[in-house]
């Protein structure tokens, strides 16, 4: 079947083709030639190799034979090209159960059955990289930043950022409309010049039009590249269509249209989904209030490793050079926080904003004084699997304001050179001078040893541990205790704890910001400092295993004589445990894990 379709009289035409794929491989050439002929007959939105995905059962065909000869396959698919996906960005494919056929029916939902109401209020401000190609942009930023209105609080950094946001929002909308109109005018002009007689004047006008059009199309390309989050293709190579399609696909993957609650019911409207998100994370970020004795037992064996030279370095005043270096080490187009300004804005206009930003950051780092909104953070939810249904299938990523990230990264850069001296050798991830592949190699060789000695007198086992919501559940009192046991100076601990505990969360869904939450625990995924703080927390687990090894309750494993004896390996928040396969050993491993759980959250 091959048909042209439109949903209403004014709608765009598109093609729908239902094709039964030839199962005989000898006839596949004929099948592909048929598709080629169909493709050449029309330029309307149709089919290419973009799989629209699915919801429902994973397989669409079954041979319905008795086990062990039962076969399930996903043979039926709905595919489209970029033009069709842009026309129907919310399309969903559902696998339906059919009682009459060995194939499942496909239900293609072009528009969601529940129409979400658009969020009220103005659209959230985002600084556009494409604006940098406008000659008026720098002057607009400079005048807005330095506008001397004391009554509006614009002598402080938040006031200056608010002034820039207000001015750029209005100016950006005007520029966007003018750019689209000018592109259309230039395209029409080039068409008319093509059909007129060629003269020296017409050729010159055509060259000028092409040059201006190229510039405007490059701006459009930068706009879509920023949304596609693609860093391996450069703008200027006529990739606008690719970036547009990739941004649209990214939006489809990250969009949330419904959520399954813990009781099995579904939240389907925007209000219900927003309430579900806020309620879930209120629970996740609520402190379990661990007992002081539990924290003491989980941290009592952590050794002091911070020596006087480290203490002196960590306590010295922060400098302008450190702040500047932290900013320019950031990826320019990282997603912005609540202020809408990406690192690119501060990097490009550093000569304008430098004095105010450095003063604000150093005032926090050296004097512990922060301005209002300094640590406000937006949370976006990124799916961890292909078909997410509940909130446990999403990873909360924190979008911090760039000014806070500069401060956080400055602290992280001060701490980073000492991590190799602080973190136990069993941890190989994100420690300067170590490679995560080192632990991968050790784990592979140890597993090989376990398999080859499975029939011997001694039996061994391997436990792979994945801690659920590892970052989100870290108790702040536990983190403070760990840093104190490691020997960090009190002033540095206080600075870190201010960064961690002063956060205020809002959530972003479909471009709408909602909710307000003050957490009681957790480390932010997206904060430059959080990764290193989590590594410090894992020192508690390493110390508990080390004591168990010394006492002989959890013996280590060696693959051969002279090889290093291993009880556990850490890969950031993942852990592998190697030990003898005996009931008593398993019980002691369980005690170690329970002690760590009660202390850390």
What does this structure look like?
The protein has helices at 28-40, 82-87, 137-145, 157-195, 200-228, 240-254, 270-284, 292-299, 308-315, 320-328, 343-348, 350-367, 402-415, 419-422, 436-452, 476-486, 490-501, 530-551, 583-600, and strands at 2-5, 14-17, 50-51, 61-62, 72-73, 79-80, 92-96, 105-109, 259-260, 266-267, 376-383, 394-400, 460-466, 504-509, 512-517, 568-571, 574-580. Strand 1 (2-5) and strand 2 form a beta hairpin. Helix 4 crosses helix 5. With 601 residues, the protein is α+β, with helices and mostly antiparallel strands. Residues 151-155 have low confidence and may be disordered. It has three domains: 2-109, no CATH class; 129-254, no CATH class; 270-600, no CATH class. 27% of the residues are buried.
Features:
601 residues, alpha+beta, 3 domains, 4-stranded mixed sheet, 3-stranded antiparallel sheet, 19 helices, 45% helix, 12% strand, globular, Mitochondrial protein, Retrotransposon-Effector_Assoc
């Amino acid at each position: 079947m091959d048909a042209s379709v439109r949903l209403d009289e004014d709608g765009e035409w598109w093609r729908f083709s239902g094709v039964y794929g030839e199962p005989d491989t000898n006839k596949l050439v004929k099948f592909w030639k048929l598709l080629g002929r169909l493709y050449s007959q029309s330029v309307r939105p149709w089919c290419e190799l973009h799989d629209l995905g699915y919801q429902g059962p994973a397989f669409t065909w079954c041979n319905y034979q008795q086990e062990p000869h039962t076969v399930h396959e996903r043979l039926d698919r709905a595919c489209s090209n970029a033009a069709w996906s842009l026309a129907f960005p919310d399309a969903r494919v559902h696998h339906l159960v059919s009682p009459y056929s060995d194939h499942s029916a496909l239900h293609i939902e072009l528009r969601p059955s529940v129409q979400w109401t658009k969020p009220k209020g103005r659209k959230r401000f985002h600084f556009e990289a494409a604006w940098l190609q406008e000659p008026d942009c720098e002057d607009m930023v400079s005048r807005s930043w330095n506008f001397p209105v004391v009554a509006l609080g614009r002598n402080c950094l938040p006031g200056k950022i608010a002034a820039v946001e207000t001015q750029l929002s209005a100016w950006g909308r005007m520029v966007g409309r003018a750019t689209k109109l000018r592109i259309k005018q230039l395209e029409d002009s080039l068409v008319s010049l093509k059909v007129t007689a060629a003269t020296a004047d017409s050729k010159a006008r055509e060259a000028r039009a092409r040059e201006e059009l190229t510039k405007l199309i490059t701006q459009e390309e930068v706009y879509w590249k920023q949304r596609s989050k693609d860093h391996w293709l450069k703008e200027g190579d006529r990739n606008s269509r690719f970036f547009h399609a990739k941004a649209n696909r990214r939006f489809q993957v990250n969009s949330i249209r419904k959520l399954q609650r813990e009781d099995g019911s579904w939240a389907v409207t925007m209000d219900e989904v927003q309430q579900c998100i806020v309620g879930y994370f209120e629970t996740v970020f609520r402190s379990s209030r661990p007992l002081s004795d539990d924290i003491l037992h989980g941290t009592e064996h952590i050794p002091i490793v911070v020596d006087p030279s480290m203490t002196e370095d960590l306590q010295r005043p922060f400098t302008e050079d450190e702040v500047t270096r932290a900013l320019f080490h950031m990826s320019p187009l990282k997603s912005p926080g609540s202020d809408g300004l990406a690192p690119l804005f501060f990097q490009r206009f550093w000569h304008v904003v430098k004095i105010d930003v450095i003063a604000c950051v150093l005032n926090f780092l050296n004097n512990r004084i922060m301005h209002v909104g300094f640590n406000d953070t937006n949370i976006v939810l990124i799916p961890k699997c292909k078909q997410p249904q509940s909130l446990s299938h999403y990873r909360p990523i924190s979008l911090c304001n760039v000014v806070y990230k500069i401060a956080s990264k400055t602290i992280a850069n001060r701490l980073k050179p000492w991590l190799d001296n602080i973190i136990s050798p069993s941890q190989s991830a994100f420690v300067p001078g170590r490679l995560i592949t080192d632990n991968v190699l050790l784990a592979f060789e140890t597993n090989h040893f376990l398999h080859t000695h499975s029939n011997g007198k001694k039996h061994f086992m391997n436990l792979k541990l994945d801690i659920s919501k590892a970052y989100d559940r870290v108790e702040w009192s536990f983190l403070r205790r760990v840093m104190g046991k490691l020997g960090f100076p009190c002033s540095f601990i206080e600075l870190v704890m201010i960064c961690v505990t002063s956060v205020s969360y809002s959530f972003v869904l479909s471009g709408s910001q909602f909710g307000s939450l003050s957490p009681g625990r957790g480390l932010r995924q997206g904060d430059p400092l959080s990764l290193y703080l989590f590594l410090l927390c894992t020192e508690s687990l390493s110390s508990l295993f080390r004591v168990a090894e010394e006492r002989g309750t959890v013996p280590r494993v060696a693959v051969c004589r002279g090889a290093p004896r291993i009880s556990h390996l850490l890969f950031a928040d993942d852990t592998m445990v190697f030990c003898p396969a005996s009931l008593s050993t398993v019980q002691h491993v369980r005690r170690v894990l329970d002690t760590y759980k009660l202390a850390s959250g």
